[in-house]
C-alpha cells in the first residue's frame, strides 16, 4: 500500500506540475501576444491614411459563392466524372499542406459544381474577394475607387457606394466564382489539414469580361488615378495584349501594382510584370514560382534548415535584381516595391528614391488587417491569436551574417541596404513584421486582397 500510495502521489504531483507548467507557458504566450498587439496598434495609430486618393482596380467582378469544403465534398464525391476526379486529386495535394489554390474548371463541370453547392445552403455572397474585395477595402478606408467590371444590378447594390464602375450598363447575370473554405485540423478521408485555407474555382468560359478593357481605358484617362491595382492575371482569357496596350498609355505618374497569382508560368504574364510592374504583391508560393519561372537558381541553403524569413528575404533580393536588370535593358517602368505575405510574417521591400512612403506603417496596417480578416472581427482579443515561435532571423544568408531578434514590444523591424545593378547603386528599405495567427480562422479567402490594399493605402 505504501508503494502504491507513493506512486499515486508522484503521478498526481507530475500531473499537477504539468498543468502548472502549461499554465505558465500559456500565460507567457498571452503576454507576448498582448505586447505584440499593443506595439502594432501603437504604430498603426501613429499615422492615418489620407482621404480620397484615386485608385483604379481591375479586372472583373465575380459573384463569389462561399461553401464549406467538407459539406461540398459530401454532395459531389459520389458523382465523379474524370474532370471532378482530377480536381479532387489537386485538392488532396494541397489540403494536407494547408495550401490555398485556384483552379479553372471545364464549363459543364463547373456548372454542375455550382448547382450542387447551392443545394447545401442558401448562397453566401462574399464581397471581400478578388477585384471587388480590393475595391471594397479601399472604399472602407475612404478612398475614391474605380472598378473595372461589368456586373449585375443585384451585385451592384451590394457594392460600397464609394466605388465607381467602369461599365455604365449592367450584366444580365454575373460570372460566378466558387470558394471552398476549410479549417485547420479538418478531416477529409485519411487527410488532415495543417492550417485553414481555401480552394477557389472559376469556369473556363467566363473568366474575363471582354468588354471591360476598352471602356476602362477611356474612363481611366478622365479619372486620373494615382495607382492602378491589377489582379486576376491568372484568369485572363482575353488577349493580354489589350491589357498591355491600356497600361502602356498610362502616365508615369500613375503607379501600377500587380498582384501575382500562384501559377505565373506564362510568357505573356511575365512580359506584363517586366514591362509594367512598379509594385508586386504575392504569397510565398507565388514568390517561389516566380523565381522558378524567371529561371533563377535557389539559395544554396537547404530549404529544410533555412529560416523562413531569411530565405524569403534572399529570394526577394534576387527576384528584384533579375526583374530590375531586365527592365533597365528594355527601358520600361522600373520595379520599386515587392510585398510578400505568409501565414506567420510579411515583408515589404521598397526602393528608397522612388517615393513609396510609410513602409513601416503600411506593413503594420497589413499585419493587423490580416488578423482582423482571418478572425472575422475588428476587435483584437489576445486570447484569439498566437505567434510563430521563431523569434529571430538573419537579414541574409550572404555574409556578413547579421541577426535580428523579434521583440514583442517592437513587432516590426526595418533597415536599409544598397544593391548595385547595371552600375546603378540602389538604396533599398526592408521591413519585416510578424503576423498574429488566428486560433479559430473564420475566413482565408480575400485575405491577400485585404492585406495588399491596406499596405498600399499608406504608401502612395
Write the topology of this structure.
Blueprint: H1 2-45, E1 54-58, E2 62-68, H2 69-76, H3 82-95, E3 101-105, H4 107-120, E4 124-126, H5 130-140, E5 144-148, H6 153-158, E6 163-165, E7 175-182, E8 187-188, E9 191-192, E10 197-203, H7 212-223, E11 227-230, H8 240-248, E12 255-259, H9 267-276, E13 279-283, H10 284-293, H11 308-330, E14 337-341, E15 345-351, H12 359-375, E16 385-386, E17 392-394, E18 403-405, E19 412-421, E20 424-434, E21 437-438, H13 447-459
Parallel strand pairs: 1-5, 1-11, 2-7, 3-10, 5-6, 11-12, 12-13, 13-14
Antiparallel strand pairs: 2-4, 7-10, 8-9, 14-15, 15-20, 16-21, 17-18, 19-20
Helix pairs in contact: 1-12, 2-4, 5-13, 8-9, 10-11, 12-13
Please explain how this structure is put together.
Helices cover 42% and strands 23% of the residues. It is of the alpha/beta class. The strands form 5 sheets. It has a 10-stranded mixed beta sheet with strand order 6-5-1-11-12-13-14-15-20-19, with helices on both faces. Strands 3-10-7-2-4 form a 5-stranded mixed beta sheet, sandwiched between helices. β8 and β9 (191-192) form a beta hairpin. α5 packs across α13 (447-459) and α12 packs antiparallel against α13. It is globular and about 60 Å long. The protein starts with a helix and ends with a helix.
